[in-house]
């Protein structure tokens, strides 16, 4: 009988790894890194309960590190099968896995420098060379329609609307003349968002593995474009600079798109806009390569018009020297820079430089995990410790959580409402306990389905 084991994202929102076993074969859906608290991150160092060499395939829902960041370790520990993903996810993984490995190496070097122990040099979880070995195992699969992996398994991907390339994975297991379908939502996106397509409906599944990040929350329905325009206008009026910590994949591109729209509608002035993140610049270029994944129309030889991911005056700063030059700008401008929670990256330098001036504005546009500088700003901190420096917070801070890339409670309900027959069993993953419990309650009351919150290392039969 086929089996499903939850090896991550059970009781938390990171480390997604769902192992399916059937007919003596093993297939892993997603292979994410645990992120956040130290206790969680420690799990990345523990051995998997299955030997990576015994896993035959990995299938990816999307490129985010909490769904792919364990791949280099899986490969370094013996996995020799193909990693199956659509083309956009593969290209994003080339950027993200190399970057993750680079950060692991930097962290290890930093820890070695701070450590007094010469006998235990801190090691990176994986190296850039190991990330390359994982990338060499990728095989692209179609972004829609059925794809046969083997006698035992086939998959079909549907748009998830979460980030470029994100997919809902429908896995069909064939064993002993019997066919069983398991649908994995991956991360579900929002409806009617700019750029990405809506999450596609799925009508049936024997088993459903569903995310629950915002299972207990609805995004505010107020007009966030108006709030964004108002905030930019009042900052420009007082001669201030706008700093936006933005996630490099997805959020930075959405903001470029929205800023462009607001400029065209003359709702905001045409301010110089700096995209100060090499990762975000590379990701932005990928949008032009993967037009099948979104609704944007890019300029080409035959078409009139402008590229939709360019503000009227946008500067892409790749080099450190160009990034530093932004510090000297005294007139109003917009700086989009990663990381999204200000835990690292170039945005930290911009915050150190701009936070003390009350004319400036910091705009928070996504989930701010507890303990991060972004969360401290959100909670009204009057000073922040950044790069060992005490920085006073006099700039205005605004929060626009509506730019989130995850479906909220009502949108989850809308997507689940597409099922024509209830799955035999639904398992909730990728949620903090409160989010998962709230979604469980909603599904039980509204749809009367059998639904459980998945537990870490729990194995269930798929009969
Ligand atoms: Zn994601």
Tell me about this structure.
The chain starts with a strand and ends with a strand. The protein has 13 helices and 22 strands. The model has no long low-confidence stretch (mean pLDDT 92). 29% of the residues lie in helices and 21% in strands. It has helices spanning 38-42, 65-68, 71-76, 87-114, 128-135, 224-237, 251-264, 278-289, 320-325, 347-354, 373-378, 409-416, 433-447, and strands spanning 2-6, 18-22, 25-29, 57-59, 83-85, 138-140, 146-148, 153-159, 167-175, 178-184, 207-211, 242-245, 273-275, 314-316, 334-337, 361-364, 383-386, 389-392, 396-399, 425-429, 451-453, 459-462. Helix 4 (87-114) packs antiparallel against helix 5 and helix 4 (87-114) runs antiparallel to helix 8 (278-289). The strands form 4 sheets. It has a 7-stranded mixed beta sheet. A 7-stranded mixed beta sheet has the order 7-8-9-10-11-20-21, with helices on one face. It has a 6-stranded parallel beta sheet with strand order 14-13-15-12-16-19. By secondary structure, the chain is an alpha/beta fold. A hairpin with a 7-residue loop joins strand 8 (153-159) and strand 9.
Write out key terms for the chains shown.
22 strands, 21% strand, alpha/beta, 463 residues, binds zinc ion, 7-stranded mixed beta sheet, 29% helix, globular, single chain
How would you summarize what this structure contains?
The protein has about 475 residues and is of the alpha/beta class. It is built from 13 helices and 22 strands.
């Amino acid at each position: 009988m086929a089996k499903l084991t939850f090896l991550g994202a059970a009781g938390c929102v990171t480390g997604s790894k769902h192992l399916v076993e059937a007919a003596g074969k093993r297939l892993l859906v997603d292979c994410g890194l645990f992120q956040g608290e130290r206790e969680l991150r420690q799990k990345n160092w523990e051995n998997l309960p299955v030997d990576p060499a015994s896993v035959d395939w990995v299938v990816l829902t999307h490129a985010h590190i909490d769904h792919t960041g364990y791949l280099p370790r899986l490969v370094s520990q013996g996995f020799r099968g193909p990693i199956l993903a659509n083309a956009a996810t593969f290209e994003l993984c080339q950027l993200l896995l190399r970057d993750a490995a680079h950060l692991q190496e930097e962290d290890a070097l930093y820890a070695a420098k701070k450590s007094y122990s010469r006998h235990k040099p801190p090691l990176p979880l994986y190296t850039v060379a190991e990330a390359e070995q994982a990338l060499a195992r990728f095989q692209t699969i179609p972004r829609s329609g059925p794809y046969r992996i083997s006698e035992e398994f086939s998959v079909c991907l549907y748009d998830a609307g979460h980030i470029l390339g994100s997919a809902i994975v429908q896995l069909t297991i064939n064993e002993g003349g019997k066919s069983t379908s398991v649908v994995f939502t991956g991360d579900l996106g929002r409806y009617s968002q700019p750029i990405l397509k809506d999450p596609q409906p799925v009508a049936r599944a024997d088993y459903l593995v569903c995310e629950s990040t915002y299972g207990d929350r609805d995004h505010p329905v107020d007009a966030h474009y108006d709030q964004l325009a108002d905030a930019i206008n009042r900052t420009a009026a007082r001669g201030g600079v706008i700093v936006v910590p933005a996630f490099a994949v997805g959020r930075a591109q959405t903001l470029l798109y929205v800023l462009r729209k607001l400029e065209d509608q003359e709702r905001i002035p045409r301010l110089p806009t700096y995209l100060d993140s090499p990762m975000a610049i590379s990701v932005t270029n990928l949008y032009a390569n993967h037009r099948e994944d979104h609704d944007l129309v890019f300029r080409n030889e035959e078409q009139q018009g402008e590229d939709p991911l360019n503000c009227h005056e946008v500067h892409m700063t790749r080099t450190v020297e160009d990034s530093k030059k932004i510090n000297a700008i005294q007139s109003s401008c917009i700086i989009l820079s990663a990381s999204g929670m200000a835990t690292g990256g170039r945005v930290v330098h911009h915050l150190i430089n701009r936070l003390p001036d009350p004319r400036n504005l910091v705009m928070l546009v996504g989930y701010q995990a507890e303990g991060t500088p972004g969360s401290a700003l959100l909670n009204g901190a009057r000073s922040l410790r950044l790069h060992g420096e005490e920085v006073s917070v006099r700039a205005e801070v605004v929060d626009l959580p509506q730019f989130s890339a995850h479906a909220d409670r009502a949108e989850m309900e809308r997507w689940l409402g597409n099922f024509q027959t209830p799955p035999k069993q639904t398992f909730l993953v990728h949620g903090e306990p409160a989010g998962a419990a709230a979604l469980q309650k909603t599904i039980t009351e509204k749809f009367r389905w059998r639904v459980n919150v998945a537990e870490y290392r729990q194995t269930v039969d798929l009969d």
